[in-house]
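Narrative of accomplishments. A recurring question from our advisory board has been how the design workflow behaves on a single, concrete structure rather than in aggregate. To address it, we present the structure tokens for one chain from the evaluation set, followed by the sequence designed for it. No filtering or post-editing was applied between the two.
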């Protein structure tokens, strides 16, 4: 059941040296492409690199220092990009749902990775301008986030602060705090 992958997915800091099989990468990206999107624009784009490829370092170098210290060990890094403008009936239209739709594709990607026995960690802590420049993104595309992918590693090798974060129980607000019937509640 999909709820199992949702409950199991947690941002991970420790990664093993094991590479991700190409078949699994294909399944992960296929899941991402199946996300719903407004007007079926499918605004998501993904630039990924495996750890042994030069583009991995290009993605890694855009991350904040706090993210670089552990993301360097991921098997792959994925730069998620949203198309914020598109052409419809010969008119250039701003896509108000581009980031939302790309977020849904990112969620599919991470849930599929989880269901395949991989761990992920989405990161917003990166230099968006540098990512745009490193990958020559056209002006109608914006970087959204970077996702670390890989197999779970030995968390005891992490710095103390990251061990504490990784082993902490996952906290979520109770349903009563976020779901209201009929009108908004606080």
């Amino acid at each position: 059941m999909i709820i199992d992958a949702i409950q199991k997915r947690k941002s991970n800091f420790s990664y093993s040296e094991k590479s991700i099989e190409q078949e699994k990468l294909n399944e992960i990206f296929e899941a991402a492409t199946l996300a719903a999107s407004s007007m079926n624009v499918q605004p998501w784009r993904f630039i990924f690199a495996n750890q042994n490829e030069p583009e991995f370092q290009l993605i890694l170098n855009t991350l904040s220092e706090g993210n670089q210290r552990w993301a360097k060990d991921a098997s792959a890094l994925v730069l998620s990009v949203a198309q914020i403008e598109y052409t419809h009936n010969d008119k250039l239209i701003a896509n108000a749902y581009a980031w939302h739709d790309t977020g849904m594709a990112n969620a599919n990607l991470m849930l599929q990775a989880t269901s395949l026995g991989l761990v992920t960690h989405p990161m917003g802590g990166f230099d968006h301008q540098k990512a745009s420049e490193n990958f020559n993104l056209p002006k109608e595309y914006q970087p959204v986030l970077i996702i670390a992918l890989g197999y779970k590693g030995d968390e005891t090798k992490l710095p103390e602060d990251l061990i504490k974060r990784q082993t902490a129980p996952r906290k979520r607000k109770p349903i009563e705090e976020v779901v209201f019937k009929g009108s908004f509640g606080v």
